[in-house]
Amino acid sequence: MKGKQVIAAASSLLRLFLPHSCVICGLGLAEGHFCAACRSDLPWTSIVCECCGKPLAVPLPPGAHCSDCQLHPPPFEKAFAPLLYTFPVDGALKALKFQRQLFHAPAFGKLILPLLAEAFGDVDALLPVPLHPRRHAIRGFNQAAELCRPLRRKSGLPVIGNVRRVRFTRPQTGLDAAGRRRNMKAAFEARGSLHFRHPLVVDDVITTGETCRQLAGTLLAAGAERVSVLAVARAVPA
Ligand SMILES: [Zn+2]
Ligand SMILES: [Zn+2]
């Protein structure tokens, strides 16, 4: 056997035993989506506001919320993201969204899956943040719906289908607080009433929290009693 044939045979054999690969470093894996080293090196959030999930420099007393939540109490009960939107999570989520690297969706979807039972045990429906139909047509898929897929499959929870994004909004980045609120005003609409008490909004990144506020407001107005939010990553406050 020539050298190239030996390498090809060896790599096919390796693929047989290690059919998966780490989405961060590409290392062959027998199962799963992250190798142990990349998984432990992920930028996990540690000290956060227990209401909005914002990363904090120092812990707050039990039951206390961050200054944003005190000044403008959010309509959702609790928002949480286990990761910071920094390297390599930012690159992976951008690749999912803008380069159609859809293999990131089951990887990060399964990463947030345990939180469904651990932190949001009493939710009775899931709602991936809807994309505006125009953006959906351009992108071809909704990254929040793709991330939500493992949660839906494992939990069997229904996905809310009667809430739409009705305004084609510009990205929130670079806008001040008032601009963000204006940008997202009346961005969502529920058709008819909601038959769920505690929906869980699922998203890829919580950037400013304004999308979650608007969507939670829409869900409460449509009949939900409480709304919670679970995202993969949380932007680090400037
Ligand atoms: Zn790795
Ligand atoms: Zn907060």
What labels describe this entry?
238 residues, alpha/beta, 39% helix, two-stranded antiparallel ribbon, 9 helices, five-stranded parallel β-sheet, binds zinc ion
Short structural summary:
With 238 residues, the chain is an alpha/beta fold. The protein has helices spanning 3-17, 36-41, 67-71, 89-98, 104-119, 133-139, 143-155, 177-184, 210-221, and strands spanning 20-21, 28-29, 78-80, 83-84, 125-128, 163-165, 188-190, 199-206, 228-234.
Helix content: 25-40%
By secondary-structure content and strand pairing, the structural class works out as alpha/beta
End-to-end separation in angstroms reads 58 Å
Q: Report strand %.
A: 5-15%
Mean pLDDT: 92
- Most strands sheet: 5 strands, parallel
Low-confidence stretches: none
- Apparent shape: globular
Order of helices and strands: HEEHHEEHHEHHEHEEHE
Total strand count, please?
9
Hetero ligands = zinc ion
Rg, alpha carbons: 20 Å
Helical segment tally?
A: 9
